[in-house]
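This follows on from our talk about sequence and fold. Can you supply me with one protein entry, sequence and fold together? Could you add the entry underneath, on a fresh line?
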Amino acid sequence: MDGVLLARLGAVIFVAIAGTAAVLEMSREEKVAELSPVRTVGAERDALRDEQRRCQQMGEAAAKETACLKVWAQTRDRFLGRPATTEGR
C-alpha cells in the first residue's frame, strides 16, 4: 500500500466518522428544562431606604445634614450586621 492510498483511506474514514457524528447530533432532541413557577413577594415599604433615596437626591448637601449622616450610619450598621446604633452616637 502506498502513501497516497493510505492517506485517501484515512480521509474517507475521517469524513465518515465526522458525518455520522453530525447526523447523530442533529437528530438528537433537546430536553426543554421545565421552568419553576416564580413567586413574587410584595416588597414592604422600607423607611430607611426612602431616607437613603432622599439623601442621594440631595447630592453634596447631604454630607452636612445630620439626618442623612444618621441614615448612613444605620445603613452601615444594617449591612455589617451590627445592632442598631443609639441616638447618642
